[in-house]
Amino acid sequence: ENGAVTAISGATGLSIWQASGSNFLQQFGASVEFSPDLNGDSVDDLFLGSPDDSVGGLTLSGSVQAIDGSNGATLWTRAGTIAGDRFGVGLHLVGDVTGDGFSDIMTVNESASVGGHIENGSVAMISAATGTIVWRREGATSGFQMGHTVGLPIEESARDMNGDGTPDVTLGTP
After folding, report:
1. E strands within 45-148?
2. d(Cα 36, Cα 41) in Å, to the nearest integer?
3. Which of 13, 67, 88, 133 could covalently link to 46 via disulfide, CB atoms 3.0 to 4.6 Å apart?
């Protein structure tokens, strides 16, 4: 009921490792995004979203974890800070926003109800190296659904739309 993620061998179909959620009904692994190696062991790592996680007394605040691809161990956890945000419902690898050499991760939830609004949506950029929230945006009004669609140019070199040397993203609202 907490959720789990299992790494399966492509060659044999056998389980390599399994990681499980620790909180009741947190939906651990409801979203998964691969990441280039974060911890220097030459194995790609993972980001996992747990949108129904309730942390620190905040109901459905959600969480995101970086997971070691070689053994399923947790590298870092970032808990959502707003009740009802469902942080981690959607994950997108963006590119190196922080300039530390790691492709950073963005979490989106177009149906988040935060800041006194209903389904205004929320988006947060997270440092892949540390799990620190780099920036956060919320839809301005109820029904705005910020992050309903996410656009990232296919070529990483084309992701800098304003010429400042940092990858950019586009966020659609219906």
Report:
1. 45-50, 63-67, 74-79, 90-95, 104-109, 122-126, 133-138
2. 11
3. 67
Q: For 66-91, write each residue's pLDDT tens digit.
A: 999 999 999 999 998 888 888 888 99
Residues 101, 102, 108, CA angle at the centre, nearest 5°? 140
Q: Position of tokens 């966020």?
A: 171
For residue 27, give both structure tokens: 């939906």
Provide, for the chain, the percentages of residues in helix, strand and coil under a 3-state DSSP scheme, each rounded to the nearest 5: 0, 40, 60
Rounded Cα distance between 143 and 15, Å, is 42
Residues 30-63: tens digit of each pLDDT:
899 999 999 999 999 999 999 888 888 988 888 9
Residue 47 token pair: 């980001």
The token pair at 40 is 């220097």
Torsion of CA 125, 78, 109, 166, to 10 degrees: 10
